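step: validate -> pass
step: tokenize input -> pass
step: predict -> running
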Amino acid sequence: MKTKLLLFFTIFSIMSIFHAQQQTHFKNDSVKQYIDKTLVLIRTHALNKDKIDWNSLQTEVYNKTKGADDIPAALSVYPYLFEKIEDHHGWLSYKNKNYRWIKNVRRVDNEVVKNAVKKYGKVQAILINKNIGYIRIPGNNDFSTKKMDSIAANIVDEIDKINSGKIKGWIIDLRLNTGGNMYPMIAGISDLIGDNEKIGGFVASDKKSEGEWILKNGNVYVDNNQVLNRRKLKIPVAKQLPVAILISGYTASSGEMTAVSLVGRKKTKMFGEDSAGYTTTNEGFKVDVNSGLNLAVGYVVDRTGKIYIENVKPDVEIMGGDNFEDLNKDKKITASVQWMKKMLYKN
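step: predict -> pass
step: emit ->
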């Protein structure tokens, strides 16, 4: 109850500031009401809210929207607003159209991966060198969380196709994973990650925990809350096999979080190029019947406590050399296999 009251008074005080500054005359009052409502949500929840001069920003936004005839005419201000709060992962959605800041992210110019993102949209598992399991997990569009069970089951089905007692290591290819829902992806490969352990989480800007990711019996929990119920593999995977993760400049958002869930695991190494840099956790807020805000509200943290403010960097950087048509000629896969052989030789 105390938290709810605190939130109420915070929002009330913000609204009081907005109402106190009535000197800007709007052509349409409904535009001002809409702008004010979104500013309150952003000022209350945005990850970087404490870094912003809100009086100055409000004045700028008012001046850019005061002449708008209606709400749609004012929406072009939101990319600017997201830029000012340094949130390139969030957006405002209005009647299924998104308004966001397209940050000039430094990304390796990798045309092979870019084209493969469009071509290879399905989970696929194959054997490499007869005893190394390879599974490619692209992004998904389960933003409504209605497909979690089927996405996780699809990954499990693919692993089942090749899994046997002969497999000596696994390659998890996230190079084409542009994001979506992280939980079914992590649940699908949870047997390769581990069990009954913390694998990462979210933290606020003050570094306080916003939820720990826990694996229990193949399922993902956030703190004590089970996210989904995933069926088990037909054949158990041997524990602590070497695992290689492949990432690229197109590994983004939930793809990055899936990669982070493996950081700190024993006998694990990441190969490839720097990820895209969408390592914030987002939360959605309803504005009205036509629109909603999706805001970055926290950062991703791995099991070792490292916070990812920018992106995920590979342990072994390999620029280019990707070959999705012939995996045996793929430089990142070749490097992963060589590393695995050294790991197995040590044992």
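step: describe -> DSSP finds eleven helices and 15 strands in the chain.
step: cleanup -> pass
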